[in-house]
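ok here's the first one, seq then struct tokens
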Amino acid sequence: MAYYWFKAFHLIGVVVWFAGLFYLVRLFVYHAEASQEPEPAQTILKKQYELMEKRLYRIITTPGMLVTVAMAIGLLTTEPEVLKSSWLHFKLAFVAVLLAYHHYCGRIMKKLAAGECQWSGQQFRALNEAPTILLVAIVLLAVFKNNLPTDITAWVIFGLIISMAVTIQLYAKKRKRDKEKLLAATQGKDEEIAGQLPV
């Protein structure tokens, strides 16, 4: 019975942890892009994002991580023989990378708050895809265990990385086009208004 309790709360922890990581880096995107806003909007937005990031990291993301790790340890105590399995070693390696990513996000959060982070919104969008790749690898290992078809898995992850990179680039081009259209429309209106003014 303990196994099922540990497993249930392990899964709950994973969902909370990943939700926090995905949203945290999305906030970094908005925080970085707030630098392009005029004052006082820039200062107001940065303060708001800083507050949201701290609360998300401390109240949701980190507790989700702690529950995930604690329940995983609980699961291992109910099935210690699984520690000899090679699939678990790979899974734990990916989890270690995810833990490093989690703490790296904490460092970025502090740098953003201090105004010392020079990352662009697009760079943060790319960073935001890292947990997706880790999630796919971890879930596939947990489901397939030693029967994971590594050749197909490698192609799936490679395809995922390529599609993410293409999507980020296409989105960046769309944003650039939209800004150019908005700028052209604004300039056109300014010229129209100037033409209507009495000389």
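and now the second one, same deal
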Amino acid sequence: MEQETITNQVLTHHLIAFGNNDLEEIVKDYTEDSEVFTPSGPLKGLEAIRAFFEAFFKAIPTGFAFEMKQLSVKNNLAYIVWTSESPVAKIPVGTDTFFLDGDKIKYHTVADYRLTNN
């Protein structure tokens, strides 16, 4: 199977799992060698990635507004731009870049502009 097709499949799986706040399905897209680069520093391994998404799900719970503004896939690279709003946070812009190694996310960058409702 062509790498771009695999990248699309993994990204689709990831986005559906994210939308469902399904931590077990999200973690399937990564390995112990995967790294997520965040504004507060890099996270490596499944335990750190799991903790990152647990916290992220508090800002964007299942069922709240999430709009994809851009989705681009080229070979083993995927890039998305999105917005979201929930009772917890308003995110006027968020962006993720995914670099795959085969059918797993090897490197993932994520950043968003977040306004919290405290």
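notes on #2: The radius of gyration is 14 Å. The domain at 3-116 is CATH 3.10.450.50 (Nuclear Transport Factor 2; Chain: A,).
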